[in-house]
Amino acid sequence: MTLASQVKDRLEQEPNILSISNISKHFPPNIIALADAGLNVRRGEVHCLLGANGAGKSTFLKLVAGAMVPTSGEIRVDGKAVKFRSPAEATAVGISMIYQELDLVPQLTVAQNLFLGHPPNNRGILDTKTRRIEAEKALKRVGARFGPDAKVESLSIANQQLTAIARSLTREAKVIIMDEPSAALNENELEAVFQVIRELTAQGVAIVYVSHRLGELREIGDRVTVLRGGRTIETFDVEGTPDSALIEAIMGKDRQLIERKERQPVTGDIVLDVKRLQGAQGLDIRDFQLRRGEIIGLTGLNGSGRTSFLMSLFGARSHEADMTLDGVPYAPKNPRAAIRNGFGLVPEDRKTEGLILQSPIYKNATLPSMQGQFWARHSYQKKRTIPVLDQLATKYGRPEQNVVQLSGGNQQKVVLAKWIIKGSQLLLLDEPSRGLDISAKADLYKLVDGLARDGAAVIVASSELEELYAACDSIWVFHEGRNIARYNPSETDQDTILKCQILGEHSGVNTDG
């Protein structure tokens, strides 16, 4: 009997440490994030969770980790029904969540982070000696080569991952959920994390491992459950299940593609020509061109480099590049330089990076165009704002109203209004439809189409491939920091693009259309 067979037999005999059945989550007024999802995790296994963007994975994980309360359904730990009202309650019964964006405190030491919220004490007085000893034990379990006194901010991303895993062990975690742990790791760092996972499962700890990358699942996973449309589709044994079966489960065998309205061929001049752009975390973009009046979509898994590329074009990320703007060398040192050259950025997080929430609508909308005009009259700013908000069909009370009081869709329109008022002709949109309902998404892309028809050049990065497929002239697939394939949606079906996105490879045919 092979070692793999022995491991499989052992896992099949293990009882479920975590059982989730018929769980759902509804948001008002009528949004169904999860409809009927379930998962059974055995003690000592690596159970992978797979699904396309928007499948419901994030909501599912938050319910398991106690960050959200389910609308219906049941969660059992060690056979006992539980109802989590907070992450602390989930942690208390052995469920630990390690988010993709690690929630460590950089300025504190490793030991302080490991016991943050539950420090050892002696009659109410912090016991630093015990904390250090227990921290050393937890670090030894994960094979760390750094000590408990190191500052977290001095550690590599891989060692911060190990710190987060070690923190779970100080809580005596029975199940550790790891959300996209490989997003910021290189191959050597990831293999070190995999080795820790293998050692933990040998000790009986269960791992729920979330990733889009099939190669990782095959290397580390025992079973994989696929979510689609907020529902559990099927659970597979990793061994013996071909990629084709997993991809079909992710996409749906009989899925109907959304309607695509054909756009006229783009004939405008090349406005942006990126021969080479390189940046942190392996960003390496080659031969990227954008024409006047064109809408280019960027698709790819989390951590594929889409946001880094847009931020670099906007002068907000350090990079080295050989690129031209309207035939003239372009090297933005900061966002101010990019704005002067006609760029506008709708950032991924509009609330923290795109708006001043407690400031009036008209001040947000005129912020870029009022640079240097310290004595601009409020009446003048409102006069410039109102026609553009009307053009965008923005629903608001008065221009003096604080933007925080608007709906998500109308907040997004205010962000766009900034760049229309400024006269920006190169728009960079990063996840512009995130958090918007169907109606607001339709309004957004109708607006983007109108801007392109008026001569603007637009790059849209989105996790929603169906939106890009419907709205864009061409779609670039990003994978691990590189732009690996360009597709013409008029000549390519969504499945082909999605397979390239998931597998990180394409057929080699001419994808330019």
What would your notes on this structure say?
The chain has helices at residues 3-13, 57-64, 87-92, 110-114, 128-141, 157-170, 187-202, 214-220, 243-251, 306-313, 335-340, 350-354, 361-366, 378-391, 408-422, 438-453, 465-471, 494-503; strands spanning 16-27, 31-42, 46-50, 72-77, 80-82, 95-98, 121-122, 125-126, 175-179, 206-210, 223-228, 231-237, 270-279, 284-291, 295-300, 319-325, 328-329, 343-346, 426-430, 457-461, 474-479, 482-487. With 513 residues, the protein is of the alpha/beta class. It folds into three domains: 16-94 and 174-251, 3-Layer(aba) Sandwich (Rossmann fold), CATH 3.40.50.300; 103-173, no CATH class; 270-503, P-loop containing nucleotide triphosphate hydrolases (Rossmann fold). Strands 6-9-10-3-11-12 form a six-stranded mixed beta sheet, sandwiched between helices. A six-stranded mixed beta sheet has the order 18-19-20-15-21-22, sandwiched between helices. Strands 2-1-4-5 form a four-stranded antiparallel beta sheet, covered by helices on one side. It is globular. It starts with a helix and ends in a 10-residue tail after the last helix. It comes from Ahrensia kielensis.
